[in-house]
Amino acid sequence: MKGKNLEEAPARFGANLGYLLEMFDLYQQNPSSVTGELQELFSTISTGRSTGSVSGIDSEKVKSVMRLTDNIRQYGHLTADIYPLYKPRRENLPKLTIEDFDLTKEDLEKLPAKLVSAHFEGHAANAYEAVTQLAEIYQGTIAYEVSHINNTEERDWLKKTIESNSRKSYSREEKITLLTSLAQVEGFEKYIHKNFVGAKRFSIEGVDALVPMLQKVLAIASDSSIPNIQIGMAHRGRLNVLTHVLEKPYEMMLSEFMHTDPMKFLPEDGSLTVTKGWTGDVKYHLGGVKKTSRYGSEQLIALANNPSHLEIVAPVVLGKTRADQEVTAGVAQPEVDFNKALAILIHGDAAFPGQGINFESMNLSNLKGYSTGGSLHIITNNRVGFTTESYDSRSTVYATDVAKGYDIPIVHVNADDVEACIDSVILAMQFRQQFNKDFVIDLVGYRRYGHNEMDEPSVTNPMLYKEVKGHPSIEIKYGKELVAEGTITEDEMNEIFRQAEEAIRSAHNAIDKNEKVLDAKMAMPEGVSAGQETVETGVAKDRLTKLNDEMLTYPEGFTLFGKLSKILDRRHEPFTKDGLIDWGHAELLAFGTIIEDGHPVRLTGQDSERGTFAQRHAVLSDENTGAKYTPLQHITDSQASFDIHNSPLSEAAVVGFEYGYNVENKDAMTVWEAQYGDFSNMSQMMFDNFISSANAKWGETTGLTLLLPHAYEGQGPEHSSARLERYLQLGAENNWTVANVTSTANYFHLLRRQAHYLNTDKMRPLVVMTPKSLLRNNVVSDKVDAFTTGSFRPIIVDDFKKTKVKKLLIASGKVAIDLYTELQKSPNEEILLVRLEQLYPLPAEEIKAVISELKGIKEIGFVQEEPKNQGSWNYIYPQLEALAGNIAVNYYGRIERSSPSEGDNEIHKLVQSQIIQNALTI
Ligand SMILES: Cc1ncc(C[n+]2csc(CCOP(=O)(O)OP(=O)(O)O)c2C)c(N)n1
To answer: Where is the Transketolase-like pyrimidine-binding domain (predicted)?
Structure first.
């Protein structure tokens, strides 16, 4: 490669090369024109400045040395020894050798080492030795990419640490520990390969070093007193991490392969928790939590349950981590301590650059409401994704390049050099602890088999697999190295291997192969099947009044924007006059009472502090100073924190984050709000793969609340529908509540009911179709009395005369209010309107009770705004039919459409009024 295709490096100077070269020129003209520090450096080079020559060295050569060293730091990684096999061909490389710069060994020997690095003091006699060392550091089995870091303090720290302190020497004991760990990792995979032929396990072989790396992270975290470790990873190597990092007994793991009962082998000391859903999941998606003191201090090590969707677990893990880092009880706002938890995210080399969720998640890393003080990312880079090689799966040189945009340091490390892998982890953790920022390790290895163990990879990747097949496994390679250097004898090596195999064989022997546990019923736990009963959620008036007054009290000298001040002043009226409580007001009262009851509240969403529709005003700004004030953080009877953040413009990562937060802090009323409900489809996989199904799959519970603005108000196909049908289609087994509420008091009671069930076996997510125009419609606003007693009403029924009613109309949300308003204008005793406030679980008993009272009824009409193939109709029709007996059930709404609504506002009005008129015609 050398000699041809060489190019001058792009004009992006490293740390400060351009500046340095300029200073050198100035120094040559007038030494006192540069700082004392530079004078000292340059004086070690130059004495005969007038001639431009130093002891016979042309000053141009000095500049060439500077350029060379800068290139090695910036681009040395391109030729570094980081690939155990199948080295990529690189063209048009920057100049990286002394010959490339027309320098000679003798030229460099005449120059001081300090010119190359300030950190080689005492280690290099001259620039030649220093350049050689620099190349070893930057082009060895670890390659560093840090020159993109914008923060000078961080970049200088990295440079100093890398050049003075990045490679450790390992004691005999440490080496034996590493070899033992590798022997266990490989022994486990080989045993399963031999004994469970064809079973999918997504072997770790090729990136085995991941396990000792994780073990080292845990040890460092223990030394740093970090008690919680949250790990997210996909299928690859997961079983190995479960057994050797979370210490899941071999017996449990093997039982899963044998379809016998793994729980029989759950450690009796309670140190391992593996949650289990009633329908279950494949073994390489399951997680667990291990309590251990193996590394010194007591730690909880959690591996998040994971769906098949690659990388999607990343924000969930971040949310869990943040929850671990926060104190939310007994404080006005959460107190965050980054040292209380560490997130480790393990990625695939194809998936990391391919899946946008990673960019959304990295964008959270330095945001006030989301930061976790630095995640450790490890890419298990086996150079192939399923059958696709990297040249087809990314446009970048490395899988890690996308992390550069987030100012994250990156190291690539050869997975066959286990000591280098450990060194990388040490650097990463030092950086994280120093700066509370993310760090990426690209663990470059290979994949021993096909995508799974049944696949024949030579069919699709013949050149890669020619090399893989002849390549020794790491434990053999490292073992032989230790024997060759005299650290251990061959017998000692073999004994380590034998013990590793023996441990797993004896575990296998302990399992009764005939004891199958197959349960086709897969029954829900009692709490889930029982569902949520009605609970009294009213709040005494004096308590509400006090809370309201405190919510409307601002610090001395705090000046609100004039118009807003008037709006907020009106929030006194329900308590002083006979005023109404509107939507935003009702919601804040609910949150205020919830924190008084001891549940922390965390609310996030795009522009949620004010509210998309300027309805909330939970955070206020001083008109003159810009200072912020959050009244709910100043409530005297509050027992827990109130936290609210405007989120970044993401749906998938932020929903995942809030979900994870609530999995970990089940006591917290955790609320995510979509800007418009339809945007929630940007996080569809969070709904499908976690929120709706996690309890059944993994026994993972949350009480996450999702606020999705939804209603047909002429805003076009997107901002009309929150795609209610999706949530109803996924509703089963009491997995969540889906509501579309038309009374502010009912919304208050719904939120309070949700809080009531938090952290109980009846907790479940809540999806609320929230209003837009109804936010300011007095018809849905209630007086304070409706808040002081009562509970959430799944249906709202107007007064009616049993014998008069011929037509029962059932409708939900905004269209129900359209009908209600019309009936107020033109009362008709033959029509009874039922406002269906909770759609799932369907309040069938309540509906049935109404029907049974109506003796002369001829028809039940279900009215919706959405097209017939969308909204609630397909969900509700069979259920209404069953409740209706002989009474006809008819549909009133838009016809089937591929798009949710018409685009033109005038056409919308026409269609909407036709629906209302048709429904109200007897
Ligand atoms: C979101 C998503 N898309 C597609 C797949 C199917 N799939 C499973 S593994 C895989 C390849 C992953 O490659 P890589 O990220 O390099 O991880 P590896 O399996 O090589 O460890 C693909 C495409 C998936 N699981 N998730």
So the answer is: 581-777
- Using CA atoms in the order 690, 691, 695, 701, what is the torsion angle rounded to 10 degrees? 110
* Low-confidence spans in the chain with pLDDT less than 50: 1-15, 47-55
Domain boundary among 753, 788, 823: 788
Distance, CA of 830 to CA of 801 (rounded, Å): 9
The number of folded domains in the chain is 4
Per-residue pLDDT tens digits for 170-188: 999 999 999 999 999 999 9
Place of tokens 């997210």: 232
What's the DSSP call for residue 689? I
The domain of 825 spans 796-919
Q: What is the number of the ligand 1 atom nearest to the C-alpha of 354?
A: 15
Domain assignment present for residue 894? The answer is: yes
In this structure, the answer to whether residues 618 and 664 fall within a common structural domain is: yes
CA-nearest of 235, 234, 239 to 193 is 239
The residue length of the chain stands at: 922
CATH number, position 735 = 3.40.50.12470
Q: Which atom of ligand 1 is nearest to the CA of 308?
A: 25
Q: Is the CB of 349 under 6 A from ligand 1?
A: yes
Q: What share of the chain is helix, strand, coil (3-state, %, to 5)?
A: 45, 15, 45
Look up residue 243 and give its two tokens. Answer: 């057994």
pTM score > 0.90 for this model?
A: yes
Please name the residue whose Cα sits nearest to atom 22 of ligand 1.
Answer: 386
Q: Is 445 in the pocket of ligand 1 (CB under 6 A)?
A: no
Give yes or no for residue 309 CB within 6 A of ligand 1: yes
Radius of gyration of the chain (CA): 33
| The residue to which tokens 């199958």 are assigned | 516
DSSP 795: E
380 lines ligand 1 (CB under 6 A): yes
Give the closest residue (by CA) to ligand 1 atom 8. 386
User: Is the shortest distance between the CB of 605 and ligand 1 below 6 Å?
Assistant: no
- CA–centroid distance, 385 to ligand 1, in Å, is 6
353 lines ligand 1 (CB under 6 A): no
One-letter amino acid identity for 556? E
So what's the pLDDT on residue 29?
82
Asked if residue 584 has its Cβ within 6 Å of ligand 1, the reply is no
